[in-house]
Amino acid sequence: MTAIISVEQLEQVVRESVARQKATDMHTHMYAPQFGKLLLRGIDELLTYHYLIAETMRWHGNVAAEFWKLGKREQADVVWRKLFIEHSPVSEACRGVLTTLKRFGLDPGSRDLESYRRAYAGVDPFRHTDMVLELARVDHLVMTNDPFDDEERPFWLAGVAPDPRFHAALRIDPLINRYDAVAGRLREWGYDVGDEWSERTAGEVRRFLAEWLGRMKPLYMAVSLPDDFVYPDDTVRTRVIQDCILPLSREANVPLAIMIGVRRQVNPALRSGGDAVGKADLQSVSRLLAANPANKFLVTALARENQHELVVLARKFGNMMIFGCWWFLNNPSLVSEMTKMRVEMLGTSFIPQHSDSRVLDQLIYKWDHSRAVIADVLIEKYRDIFETGWRIGAAEIRRDVADLMRNNFWRFVNRPDMVCYD
Predict the structure, then answer these.
(1) DSSP E strand stretches across 86-187
(2) How confident is the model at residue 1 (pLDDT cuts 50, 70, 90)?
(3) Is residue 2 included in any domain, yes or no?
């Protein structure tokens, strides 16, 4: 029997357990330092993150075209002036920049952007990566890897081996959402596919995917789906999923991650910041889960309105794992609400968070802020069971925290060798 703690000790034990537990960040848009310039890092990249650009445009007026003519440094100057000097940086994205500066030992109160630039200037990408992972308490992370990306693809074809802490996820959006736009490229690369779907085309797409599964060795395949996604229907999207993705997922024992609810480019002038959110019909996800019990699915939804139904689905299908508070949901008030609901309905059998980071330094604030909320929720829920007369030990709390922040993911992606408890 583990040593029991008192209710008075509970908060300290939980906060210490959450703070010290290394997390596996199971969905990011970052790259290992071996990928050169694809790894975004530093203060100017933090300031030109698309969240901050979109927020800047609200103050800066309808001048997006002029903004994009500026260089990276000049864009960062505009964002800094508008969001940090002319207005208080109270949004979550702005707070994140300040948290990151503070954790790097810099003084946010100085408001001295040039001093921050100087501090970052002498740090090489490999040392920078080590520093960030240590500050964020992240032991492993998963990239987003697109074989159709002309900047990324050559690294894989050249056999570049990423830092072992950086794992691949095979992104398949172009095949599922825009097959007609990539069929020509597949033919250029030697795959005998047609513009119309056929058995031959399905076989060639499977061959393409199998080769990239072998090349990347991804922990999962992933797709971002629009809010109007329907499954099954009579479109090529359904055929790609049924004929190619699901069979390979089963054969390779590689889960499929579904991220649903994106409305692409509602404001193209904002470029990568121009996407929005829509409430999805999760009955399509339910049908996908029910029809494919031998497949595993990591699932997250972008709309707040979908969260309760998503948790109920997770109670019904053991082949589904809910993960993270994605994109527009990654704000403390919503992270708290969603995490409470999930604990109340799923116990500790889910993945509470991922960073979705595009810039290396974002790992620091996204995990710092999330850890604080996760700890608050756990303290409340442990207190609830204390009131029933149940008692709990520090080792049990550490076990639960380890499951939530890393082990649930590794078990679900069929890597029991990565499961560990300190």
Answers:
(1) 138-142, 166-167, 170-171
(2) low
(3) no
